[in-house]
Design a protein that fits this description.
mainly alpha, globular, single chain, Rna Polymerase Sigma Factor, Chain: A
């Protein structure tokens, strides 16, 4: 997953529990990119992902005294991010398709013909991921983009290991069908 040892995270969290702001800053720098990427993948909105990332760390800081050190601090952080993402998705206003089209045109104009197919495949891949049911999508993102194993995902989402496996199978099946034309 990340390129650092979990003992570093545990050491930082112990200091954070004592309200050490420099430890919190280091913790933030280590985990912010993965939390942001998770939130961006889930919301498909870079501005919302930035805001939700900040909110995730603020909630972590505000509630760190109740954190059980024996549990994974990363899992706790992802639980906060998951809850914020779900709240955002349920209250999110409709997306302006004109802005999306404009962004796609800008991307294409900046890339050569060799990258053209790749851009559309990535766009179709992201759209296919976005069509997955919420729980299914969250499990897929945590597994494929954030590198969590199934038991860690079960802990983060508070569901059984079997549910994680079933939802991953469902996600992969849906994605295979939606992207079948690109798999041949």
């Amino acid at each position: 997953m990340e390129g650092f040892d979990n003992s570093v995270i545990l050491s930082l969290v112990q200091k954070i529990k004592e309200k050490d702001e420099s430890a919190f800053k280091e913790f933030f720098c280590l985990l912010q990119p993965s939390i942001y990427y998770f939130l961006f993948r889930f919301t498909s909105d870079s501005i919302a992902a930035e805001d939700l990332t900040q909110e995730t760390f603020i909630k972590f800081w505000e509630n760190v005294e109740i954190l059980d050190i024996s549990l994974s601090p990363k899992s706790y952080l992802y639980k906060i991010a998951k809850n914020l993402a779900l709240n955002f998705v349920t209250r999110k206003p409709p997306v302006n398709s004109f802005d999306e089209a404009e962004n796609a045109i800008e991307l294409i104009s900046k890339n050569s013909q060799t990258n053209y197919d790749s851009i559309f495949l990535n766009d179709e891949y992201q759209k296919a991921i976005n069509t997955l049911p919420e729980r299914c999508r969250m499990i897929f993102i945590l597994s494929r983009f954030d590198g969590f194993n199934y038991s860690e995902i079960a802990t983060i989402l508070g569901i059984s290991l079997q549910t994680v496996k079933n939802q991953m199978n469902k996600a992969l099946s849906i994605l295979r069908k939606k992207l079948a034309s690109h798999l041949n």
